[in-house]
Amino acid sequence: MKVGGQAVIEGVLMLGSRVSMAVRNKNGEIVLEDLSQSSVTTKRLFKVPLLRGFVSLYFSLYFGIKALNRSAEISSGETAKKSDLFWTTLFAFGLAIGLFVMLPMWITGLFGILRKNEVLFAIVEGGLRLTFFVLYVWIISLFPDVRRLFQYHGAEHMVINAYESNEQLDLDNVKKYGTIHPRCGTSFIMIFLIFSVVVLSLASPIASKSFAWRLLSRLVLLPLTAGFAYELLRVSSKSPTLFKFLFYPGLFFQKLTTAQPDDSQLEVAIAALKRVLPDLAKEEGPEYFG
To answer: In the 3-class helix/strand/coil scheme, how is the chain assigned residue by residue?
Structure first.
């Protein structure tokens, strides 16, 4: 079966036969917790082309935010207030919209010649959005806490690479594999950002020159753009030779978003993956919560 995952604070979230995460607490113990007892990919919406891309993005964000908040509690041993979690999440979404949607639009609009050509406007805006995103990730990668998160991201990729190569999931086998994976969400984001330029260019005949209408059109076209990007990623993963060029931006960008993990981080990722595999989920292991 196909599995996927995300890095969380001092741990890894995995999606397979169920949605689970493994987090190392402040006592050094690995804590396993189920966020869903079943696989979200069995839902009917995941079978509908184009729509499944946005649905996949929604569930990734939903479980990702939930796992990040819960992993922070487990790793620190402190319970966060729900109000604090709400405002933190709201701030994160506001920052994303402001930095990667509104700011590129505003800067592009400062150039008079671009305001008269919606196709050119979309190309320049998309280039700025991609540049801002890469710079943002590069800057936060310099912080030690984020760097540690990227190590867990690398650990997640290494264990999935080992699993997909039919290796037994132990440290020695997993350490043979790299931190790069073609189906990473990073590749999806890069394809999404690049393809958004195409979508907005094609939609230019119905675009208006007002800032409010442009912003609305970007938000409305978000599900469609995510759907096309997801389908491209699916096709390219099945025909890696023919669509190899689609992988290059994401694979290159993963050099920033992943880092080489240590053994203790790999142990956490292995525990998370075993938890979501039907044939391994019942093995004895650390204490389960949830």
So the answer is: CCCEEEEECCEEEEECCCEEEEEECCCCCEEEEEEECCCHHHCHHHHCCCHHHHHHHHHHHHHHHHHHHHHHHHHHCCCCCHHHHHHHHHHHHHHHHHHHHHHHHHHHHCCHHHHCCHHHHHHHHHHHHHHHHHHHHHHHCCCHHHHHHHHHHHHHHHHHHHHHCCCCCCHHHHCCCCCCCCCCHHHHHHHHHHHHHHHHHHCHHHCCCCHHHHHHHHHHCHHHHHHHHHHHHHHHHHCCCCCHHHHHHHHHHHHHHCCCCCHHHHHHHHHHHHHHCCCCCCCCCCCEEC
Per-residue pLDDT, 208 = 61
Please list the residues that pair with 33 across neighbouring strands.
21, 289
Give CA–CA dist 208/41, Å, rounded: 38
Question: What 8-state DSSP symbol labels residue 175?
Answer: T
Classify residue 207 by its DSSP letter.
-
As given in the structure block, the two tokens for residue 190 are 């890069």
Residues of the chain with confidence (pLDDT) below 50: 282-290
**pLDDT the model gives residue 37:** 79
Domain range list for the chain: 4-289
Give per-residue pLDDT as tens, 105-123.
889 888 876 667 778 888 8
